[in-house]
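Researcher: Watch the backbone:
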Amino acid sequence: MIHVEQYGPVLAIRMARNFLWRPLWWTAAYWVDGILIDTGPACIANQLGRVLQRLPVEQIVVTHSHENQIGGLAQIHKRFPQAPIYASARALPTIEDPTRLRPQLYRRLLWGVPAPFTNVLTLDAIDNVIRSSKYTFRVIETPGHTPDHISLYEPTQRWVFCSDAFVYGRDDTWTPEADLFGVISSLRTLASLHPERLFAGDGRVSRTPLPELHEKIGDLVRLTREVARLEAARVRVPDMVARLFPGESVLQFWTMGHYSATHLIEACRSYNAIFAPLDQGEHSMPLSSANLSEPADSSDSSANLSADQGDLIR
């Protein structure tokens, strides 16, 4: 299933396998001024190629090396063999050998298995800048969802193509490999860019991204604090799940435990452990409700007290 939406000069190409004519899990590629951002999953690569056949594809950029971003590389390259393909240097080993992903069964069913692909250049080779005839995109490192994750920022238009660095909704599940410290840091980086349009990995486009980014940061930081308080009270992880969530999500069942609230609690514990030595210092800052609020200029996340020591749990 493919659904195409237009946002000015940007095409959002949403893709999903369907069951009983209903999409199971959306993922997206974006096309703008000859640049294709991500290539979707292997199982929909032929359909994506048909969508793109009347469009110029002059460059291809991969945001990270998950199967729903790299799965279409081989097929799209066949259609547009002259288009250079760029990715983070950290993504290249997985793109060249997708068996490194070791995807769970649900991922293989949803997206298919990518073919190995070697014709990829590193973004470092072009100084982390993607230029088209009309736009200039800066490469922004946004690890957390994966270590190799990057986003693209167009400073004149204030567009951010963030793929899975930002996920809509309040988190109640997590994967064991995702890094919460990286996710929160990357969200702050994106907020500091003052974006006016945010193009997310599921194809949704935000027209009010800054408050949504700050809300996501605040939700995650508050959750880490709640976990720290419960851990200090010697509450066990299963009991934390029961207190902080209405139980495990149905996603935990369908992904055979890959996504779970338990993993999210463990991610919060790992996040808190980073700050624990600082928390014991005699000059550490006391926790107050002010630490949870946005700064006077909320457009600059780096000024938020919760950015570093303000994240410490008392």
In short: DSSP finds ten helices and 15 strands in the chain. The first strand starts at residue 2 and ends at 7. The chain has a mean pLDDT of 90.
